[in-house]
Amino acid sequence: MPGFLSCCVLKRCRVAHLPRRTSFATAKMLPLSQECCRSRRHRRRGRGKTRTAIVNTHLQPESCAMTETSSRQSGPPTPPKTSSIQTKRAAIQALRVMIACTVTYGLSQLLNLQQGYWAVFTVLIVMQNSVGATAGMAVDRLVATVAGAALGGIAVFLTPHQPLPIGIALICVVGIASFVSMRAPRLRNAGLTAAIVMLTRSQAVPVEVFVIDRIAEITLGGVIGVLASLVILPTRSRTVVLDRFASALDVMAQILRTLAAGAEKGEAVSATEANIGLRQSLVAAEALLTDAQREHALWLARQGISDAIPRSLWRIRNDMTYVSHLLEAPFPAEVVAALGPQAARVMRSQAGFAEACGKALRNAGEVDSQRLSEADGALEAAFEAFQNSKAAQSIGFRESGRLFGLDFTLRRMRQNFLDLADRIRESQFN
């Protein structure tokens, strides 16, 4: 009993000095430095005991993690099969590109553009699988074209039309454009446009006319590409990102249920690979978040996505990582008997809450925040009863610290889930 209570006092003192929230970058990087040392420590502690492993958690847009025992990891993983939804999306994208190229080619012939094929090239370059990604590529392409055409036009205007001066000017222009593109990545195609202007201009065509034609052709291709993505069976970047976040929540639910089973049975559980796969999934979803925000900024979508949603997901993922480290070695039998069922019930309720949040992200539904309260109340009562029992005196200082850490992390994860539900409501309202 004294060992258990002294550990609780020490832990509470340490937790009191921890910041309530961490920054976005810190939230992503913090658990990585702790994974290796804790996993080695718990592996030494849990040798010779049954361990359940969570594997195959590399997320696909429509697939979730699977759980299996470590004895079934001997064979190589089977390659993921292409789903019907992915095939449907590929067919829709091919249809968009074909229609956009047809329209662009017809307009270039109708307008009698000198080099109308550049408009078709632009369609092929800018068209992506979502409206926001296509719009972003089109804007970047247009900005780079204007900058490159202006730079190349100035070089042509100032350089004698002879091979050696043109070669020297070309090297200088390409060097300037490459330097600028390193500072501003959206201008990475400026050097290509400048080189095209310098190398393909005919002496019979004035420089300013040639530059204006290039800008008009690129603009035509970019506008048609965006309109095709917007009109022909559109896929919104916001929908894609929310689906990725919802898939991550589904994986969180599966990991929590596996951890709950281990806590209830008193078995060691390893979720390191699952948490790494979950981290990679969140990083990939955040990369697409920029497209959704740009889509909203260009008035192509009514609703945006708040940065608070991925921040909440990162905090939940970090809490799950810590819980999985605590469960990599089994708790003593008396702790499992007193608190195992209640802790498992809390994790299962949080798993159900994660799935409810995922459904709300996909279908704009409501999330019932009261479903977490009953299980948390049962764990709190069991924890207080265990503190006052004789069984608490038999566990050591280290096990007491692990037990208190589990209780504290489950409470913090509950708060982070509630915070996520609030952010989802705010996003739907806005």
Strand and helix layout:
Layout: H1 2-16, H2 24-29, H3 32-45, E1 51-55, E2 66-69, H4 84-110, H5 117-126, H6 131-158, H7 163-183, H8 190-200, H9 207-231, H10 237-265, E3 268-270, H11 272-297, H12 308-326, H13 333-363, H14 373-387, H15 397-429
Parallel strand pairs: 1-3
Antiparallel strand pairs: 1-2
Organism: Rhizobium freirei PRF 81
GO molecular function: transmembrane transporter activity
Membrane topology: Multi-pass membrane protein
What does this structure look like?
- The chain has 2 domains: 243 residues, Up-down Bundle (Methane Monooxygenase Hydroxylase, Chain G, domain 1); 142 residues, no CATH class.
- The chain is 72% helix and 3% strand.
- It has 15 helices and 3 strands.
- A 3-stranded mixed β-sheet has the order 2-1-3.
- The radius of gyration is 29 Å and the shape is elongated.
